[in-house]
Specification:
The chain is α/β, with parallel strands linked by helices. Helix content is about 45%, strand content about 20%.
């Protein structure tokens, strides 16, 4: 077998396809087309001389040879990343790479926190992947990044979790909504309203569903949308109400076009965490980043969050809402 002619790229494509048991998902994860993934795997299969996958019904499984090759890939890529770490440790903090994967809601604050770190260490390349919770959890399993930003702790994964910022999930409606001026709205009253929900796999959706399920209140889900930004636009457009993190109100001029309803049991309070797999060896760069994130980064996050809360409670915000409501 001329396995030495297999390229690292083919092995990487195979490893991701084996982790997802799907060529389509592997293509998405690697920013390749599906035919490219199929072609790489076909060539690798030819080199190995035995099938690596088998399809039963609609599902893809690894063959015994595929499982052996997966274990080999894990060895190879594990050794390569140890080597990378050794080199970056030799270079100290001068050069390096840092990979972060954050849940979509964290896009409202995470990039801002990166600013001072990137300025201080201009030769450290930072890659930030923004995706929903279930994808972030998959990336933790794949050991794809150095750090992850998530809300709720994952249930079945062994991770080191450091809280760094508070979060509040709030009920959003357009300012002219009949409930907009009411105080202490009973929770069950929300079940009469059309509700816009995040997509399956979203952490926000999970928190919202658990909150309502635990209180035996059902929601009339009128629509599912795959981003908090789209949900805000839907709420502004009168499609329904929704529950999102208050951080999502920080951008895009939506402040003033959305009203936070005063609902019993709300806001739902929780924390944002920075996470990494227990036992993961942190490079010099990763350790410096974690230190930064939990000190200076945390301060920036807290300051921004206080400013946002102040803005949401300020008379000018309330006044803008009133003007909006009157003109509708
Ligand atoms: P989401 O996650 O952006 O996938 O909704 C937020 C969270 O984990 O709380």
């Amino acid at each position: 077998m001329a396995l030495k002619s297999a390229t690292l790229h083919q092995l990487q494509v195979f490893q991701v396809a084996a982790a997802h048991l799907s060529f389509t998902r592997a293509a998405e994860a690697l920013f390749l087309t599906q035919p490219t993934v199929s072609m790489q795997i076909k060539q690798l299969t030819k080199t190995v001389g035995m099938p690596l996958f088998e399809q039963i019904g609609k599902k893809l499984y690894l063959t015994e040879a595929g499982r052996e090759l997966l274990a080999t890939c894990e060895d190879i890529f594990g050794r390569l990343s140890q080597f990378e770490m050794a080199i970056s440790n030799m270079q100290g903090l001068k050069k390096g790479q840092l990979k972060l994967a954050v849940v979509t809601t964290a896009k409202y604050f995470a990039p801002r926190l990166l600013g001072p770190f990137c300025k201080r260490y201009p030769d450290i390349d930072v890659a930030l992947k923004v995706t929903n919770r279930s994808r972030v959890l998959e990336r933790i399993t794949e050991n794809a990044d150095d750090f992850y930003i998530i809300g709720q702790p994952p249930e079945n994964l062994e991770v080191e979790l450091r809280p760094f910022l508070e979060d509040s999930l709030v009920v959003l409606a357009p300012p002219n909504h009949p409930l907009a001026q009411e105080r202490n709205i009973p929770l069950h009253r929300l079940s009469e309203e059309p509700f816009i929900m995040r997509e399956p796999g979203s952490g926000t959706r999970m928190v919202v569903q658990n909150f309502f399920n635990e209180r035996h209140v059902s929601l009339r889900v009128k629509m599912e949308l795959g981003s908090s930004e789209a949900i805000k636009q839907g709420v502004i457009g009168g499609l329904g109400i929704s529950v999102l993190s208050h951080h999502t109100l920080a951008l895009e001029g939506s402040i003033g076009q959305l009203k936070i309803l005063d609902v019993e049991g709300f806001p739902i309070r929780r924390h944002w965490h920075i996470a990494y797999p227990i036992g993961k060896k942190l490079s010099v760069v990763a350790r410096a980043f974690l230190d930064y994130w939990l000190t200076e980064g945390k301060e920036i996050a807290e300051r921004t969050s206080v400013e946002l809360t102040r803005e949401l409670a300020s008379p000018s915000y309330i006044l803008r809402q009133a003007v909006q409501a009157a003109s509708q």
